[in-house]
Every structure is written in C-alpha cells, then in structure tokens.
Amino acid sequence: MNIEIANRLVQMRKEKGFSQEALAEQLGISRQAVSKWERAESSPDTSNLITLAKLYNISLDELLNTDQDKFESSEPMVEADDLDERVENEAVTRDQSESESAASSDYVNIGTKGIHIKDGEDEVHIGWNGIRIVADGEEAVRIGDGGVFVDGEDYSDYNWKADGISGFIVLCVFMWLGAVHGLWHPAWMLFLAIPIVSSLFHAIRTKNARKFAYPMLAVIVYLGYGFWTEVWHPTWLVFLTIPMYYWVVNWFKTHKEKWDEF
Asked: Alpha-carbon distance 262 to 258, whole Å?
C-alpha cells in the first residue's frame, strides 16, 4: 500500500476516536489486519474500503486521495527501504522492552469487570464485551459482538436462530432448578450449553469440525472446574487449547484432501 494512504488511514481512525481494536470490530477483522494497513504492509480489499468510507462518512475518492495539502504527514517522507528498516528496528526495540518487563507485569485479576490473566506473552481476558486470548504476543482468539475469530479467521458462522427452542428449554430447566432446589448457581451455566449444542449439530450437518463452538466449551470447562474446586490458576491454560483445536482440525482437513487425491 502507498505510505501516504496508510498515513491517511491512521489519521482518519484517530480523528474518529477509534482504537485499532475498535475499528477491527467494526469491520469484522483482526486488529493485526488494521495494523498492517497502517504500516503499509498490506491493503484493504474493496469491501473494507467501502465500509471505511461509510464509517468515516466520506467518499472513496476522498479516502484514497493522496493530496498532502490536508493530510500531510508530520514526518518527512522516506524511501520504502528506509521505512521498512525503521519499522523493523522499532519492532525489535519494542519486543525487547516488552520481554524485559513481562516477568514483572504478570497478574491474575478476577472481579466484577471480568477475568484478566497475564503470564509473559500469554493473556486471557473474559469480560462483558467478550473473550480475548493472546498467545506469544499475538491475538489467537477473539469472541465478541463482531463474531468468533481464531488467528484472524472468522469462525462465527453459527445458526443462532436455531438456539431459540433450546434456549427456551434451558430457561425452563434453569427456573425449575432455581425455584425448586435453590440451585440458581451454578445452574446458570446451562445457558452456555446452548451454542455448544447448536454448533455441534451444525458441525455434524456440514461435516466441518471448525463449525463447532470449541471456544465456548473451553469457557464451560474453565468456569465449571473453577467453581467446583476454586482453582482458577492455572486452569485458565484450557483457553490455550483453542488455537490447538483449530490447528488439529485444519491439519486433518488438509491431509484428508491429500488422501482423497490418491
């Protein structure tokens, strides 16, 4: 991508008050994708450009116009090779700084705002706005209003409308357990089983294991074991199995296609 357009994307995002993560959620993509646009390492496709123009309330011509009278960078333009070298040096410096402070910034925080855990370059955040998991400094899983993303790929193609019937059944069972037996807690965890059942049937019907809501299963295992034993750390490591699950599924899918060729 042209560095001038990349600078424009940064400026337009900041003018609208979006963080990279907030913009990524608006577009339904990963934060890394937005970061690459703004570093001129990749370009938005036509669909994302149209969405950006609508989001910023400007035309495509205005979005892609490289006239620097209005959007002149605060830094002098540099050659592409020099820019790449500078970005690489900044990344190395940042990584070194983060690695030096990682050990002293580890934490486990469980409260009204959610569950937040950091162990080196691995992070787990569970809150009202969703679930976010970082492995080795890179976002591995994000579950929120924007969908379900694993390593930047969208796995949110679930049939949520089919959850209505199972949701009603779960609600009736929950009310019965709560009113009759006083088991309001942890009976509320039954609601977490709704997407599990729905996605399981969807995965079986499409013969695609990637459609199964494994991230939600990891949440149930984590909460269930935590409430039962009151051991929250290091039980959170179950979330690190999420990218492993999709890696195994993709591995079997790839090798099955190769086997079918013979």
From this structure: 7
The three-class DSSP label of residue 166 is: helix
* Residue 71: Cβ within 10 Å count: 17
Question: pTM for the complete prediction?
Answer: 0.37
DSSP assignments along 96-135, one per residue: HHHHHHHGGG-EEEEETTEEEEEETTEEEEEETTEEEEEE
Digit-coded pLDDT (tens) for 228-239: 888 888 888 888
Average pLDDT over residues 129-137: 77
Examine the pLDDT at 64 and tell me if it is beyond 70. Answer: yes
Taking the C-alpha atoms of residue 214 and residue 243, their distance in angstroms, rounded to an integer, is 10
CA distances in angstroms from 108 to 98, 127, 164, 232, 235, listed in the order given: 18, 14, 36, 9, 12
Amino acid (one-letter) located at 133: I
